[in-house]
Structure formats: structure tokens, C-alpha cells
User: What shape does this take?
Amino acid sequence: MTLPDVITHYHSKVDRPFQNLSDLGPDELSEVLKNLKQRRADNPGYKRMFGKLYMDFRRRTEAKLRDLFEARGGEPERQSPHYFVLGECAWFSGLYPDPDTVKLDWPSLPKKAVSFTYPDSFVAMRLGPDYGLPPDPLEPYHERVYFMDELANVVAEHGLPDGDVDETYEGYHKRKFEKYIEVQVWTDQPVAKYLESGR
Assistant: This one.
């Protein structure tokens, strides 16, 4: 099986890429979440879910993810990563009515600043039941963080997730969710031009 040599960050065209909610202070975060909720209400084409417990769920997931990465010898430069998927994912693109992407060549990225989970880190870190989500059956790749040089072995054992679009995205966060391999970039260096230019 030929593995993708790129990773993809998806975002709406009306937003610049790599706007990480975890980087925001409480006041700014509250305003951004309010705007995201209103945007989804105004345009059903925006399908991402941001419930009232989302940020607590996210921060606990990121803390666990970071701890596991450091325990394996990872050297994160950020408290929370920049998020990508391996290759391309039609399902993730379908979260937006106007998707745009940033692609990076992952083999060129610094080994100790990049990790991946199988599948999405929210699923892999297994904190969902604390927030009312149904537990997924425990898999051998859950609660694990991998380096990119382990990718071929993980995919050989478990295959690539099916990233096809949903007929409906309604309630996707409550269903079994294995749509992509998530890649976490724990440094600003590879995306610095986007952070500096605002585009």
C-alpha cells in the first residue's frame, strides 16, 4: 500500500488557517464560540460541532495527547498542536460549505515535533464517555500516540480509515468515528508563513 506523503489542514475559506481555539484567552474564546454557533445556525453548510462542554473535552484530550507524546520522547514546542489529516479526507472537507486546505510534505517535518493518532485524537484518547458520548470498543491503537516513522506499520496492521463523506453529518460525534488518521504538528515552524501573514 502506498502511503500519502502529504498531510492536510482543512478550514473554511472565510477563516485563515491554523486558528487554534486552545490558544485563546477566556474572553476571546467566548466570543469566537458564540460566533461559530451563530454561523452554524445561519448556514447549515457549516457542520462542525461546538457544544458547551467542547473546550473542556478538547483541553483534557490535548493534555493527555501531549503527555503521551512526551513520554515517548516527543518534544512539543506548543501546548496544543496544529491539526492535520493524513493525505486527504472527503469527510473532513464536507464539514465546510467552502473548504480550503494547506498541505505539507510530512517526511520533511521534524521527527520529534510531529505525532499521529489512529483515528482522531478525541476518539483515540477515550475521554468521550465523560461528556455523554457512547464509548467506542477498545482498540489496540486507542490511548496511543505514534511517531510518523511508525505510520507504515500501523497502516499495515489496521488499514487506512474510510474517509468518505456522510450522507448526513447530523449526530456524527455520537457515532463510531474512524474517518481519518489525525496528524499533530507541535511546532509553529512549518506553518509560520500562515501565522505571520494571516493567510
